[in-house]
Amino acid sequence: MELVIFILTYLNMFSFIITEPVIKVGAIFPQEAEQNFNYPEMVFQYAVHKLNLDKSLLPDTQVVHHTQYITNDSFQAVQKVCNLIHIGVQAIFSPSNSALAAHINSICAELDIPDIGTGRSTQEFSINVHPSKQYVNYAFIDVIQYLNWTRFGILYEKNYGILALNQLSRSVQSELHIRQVSPTSYFSVLKEFKHKEIHNIIIDTNSADIAILLKNILQQQMNEYKYQYLFTSFDLETFDLEDFKYNFVNITSFRLVDMGDVAVKEILKDIDLYNRRIFKQNQTVFKQQKSAVIETNAALMFDSVYVFAIGLQSIYPLINLSNSTCDDEVPWNGGLSLINYINAVEWKGLTGPIQFKEGQRVQFKLDLIKLKQHSIVKVGEWTPQNHLNITEPSLFFDTGSMNVTLVVITILETPYVMMRYGKNFTGNERFYGFCVDILETVAREVGFDYILDLVPDRKYGAKDPETGQWNGMVAELMKYKADLAVGSMTITYARESVIDFTKPFMNLGISILFKVPTTQPNRLFSFLNPLAIEIWIYVIAAYLLVSLTIYIVAKLSPMEWQFIIPCDLENITKRNQFSFSDSLWFTIGTLMQQGSDIHPKAVSTRIITSIWGFFSLIIVASYTANLAAFLTVERMMNPIENADDLASQTEISYGTLESGSTMTFFRDSMIETYKKMWRIMDNKRQLAFTTTYEDGIRRVNQGNYAFLMESTMLDYIVQRDCNLTQIGGLLDTKEHFEYSQIDDSININNEYKQTRDEISTK
What we know:
The chain is of the alpha/beta class. Helices cover 40% and strands 20% of the residues. It contains 26 helices and 30 strands. It has an 8-stranded mixed beta sheet with strand order 2-1-3-4-5-13-12-11, with helices on both faces. Helix 7 links the parallel strand 6 (151-156) and strand 7 (175-180). Helix 4 (74-87) runs parallel beside helix 5 (98-111) and helix 17 (533-556) crosses helix 18. It is elongated. This is Glutamate receptor ionotropic, kainate 2 isoform X3.
């Protein structure tokens, strides 16, 4: 008997001598994991098991794990951590609960115990295997900018959200609606977003409650193609999305674990076998976990164990075992060195490449994934170095996969929308024009069918100041009788408050269309037009008066008398050379710059003829100058030159298109001239307003009517009708749009926008 006792004692001593050195690690999990199956805890145990089997990292060493379970009680969490430290653990793997992580980290930092976290929170002096919150925020900002969200909502839960809302709001130029929610308020906030027609929503909540949120989305019937959801959780592939696959709802998220990687598949298969062997008694719970996917927290827990082992490998066995306690508050001698070695680890794990900087993970790869009809597919990736790279842009804007037919209304407006009148044209073939071409391009790029028809009242849309009711295309959109309105629609503040517009493709203003003044017909005596009739009368009178004066003065002057036959001395006869007819001929010859055979000899007649010659020179020069200008430039005078002239007269009527933006401009204007014009137009509604642009142009051609219209249409009309012209400049400045809609259910990617801009430029 004594011999047997001796042998057993010897064997125990020998086993102690050959036992491998033990590395103790501690892990903290939620309290409910102690009673129920917890997948991250199982993966943690598998990682330790696999590490002990792999002798390449820590040869001749056994890693032993100690687990503690905590609630949301911070005092209890501190006691549990102190218990682990008292056991002698060399690292603590803290939970993802950010509220408790701060308390755990404060103790570990005080005692230089490595605190390896897997949560989204950032704590000083800790090693966080979860990607840096700052970089993750950049990733979601890049996605928002790529999708061109100009208006979206954010649902976030305190202590669970990953987004830095302040950074997000400063980085995107969009209209944000941020709501803090809980599982009990999901329904009410979703109802609010639906009422406000917010169709782009970011879900930044607790992954454990996603099932409740998805159920509320179904109850609100917000699982249609026009809704886009961006989940911040990396576990989209673990959610039950069966009810969302066939409604074309857009659900997008990132994932940290590449399920298509061969190495990842091997590890997941091994985890599945380990799970079956260890948890045979929990078959029902095991079946709930998909073997093809892994939760992000579990994958991070696996990577954190190996990160610790790689860091420990660099310093072991030089490091001393931990002998610290919370009571002594003496830091572990080798703890700080171990933290530095862990911080220098570079490795590729389940969650991709891993590299740290000051305890934060700065090297990783996020796969951008999207829900399709039959599965979740990868559409791009994001890295801190290269940022967002979309590999499948067509999957964001699938052409032809959506079986959607939109009702589109329009209004005839040359050259934007015109109609073919013929028996062979039916349906959408009846319409053609600039806006119709744009609509066809949008439908082809986005992937939808449409039914194009005219608005019943043939109006763009204006708000009645008395009843507050809208008419025209705006009313059809507000009543949901149409999904889109296509045409040369002008943005106004009132319209923008009730419907959404696309980006403008040109700037324009209001101008005046008027008929070109008619020219006078050519007449036989049109050569007299350079000088006024009074001047011609004065010239004729001066001509007769000067001729008579020369005749009289010549009769009185002896120098103007001559011998008829100078050699006949017997019959001496004298004659005056300036008879009345000769005086007329001499004066007209001087006026015509031709001269004559008669030359004055007396001083008096020479003075008179000199004055007449100078007068003739001035008259002829003036007439020649006016005649050249009259023949080369036809003088046409407009009765009006600007809006002030139009408002200050009563002979010419004026008006604009009824229920259009131009009418609204004059009705709401505070400028006195425009207010006066509106009062006159409002008092003469039948004469002032027209139902169509064609009617207004026809009235302008009839004469004595000025039509106030948009400058783009005016330029188009003036170029094609030489009888019409523009009066003055622009009365205002505004922007022109191709189509508008009551909501933003149709999203157009950047490639289409570039195509549309090119077409608009052409």
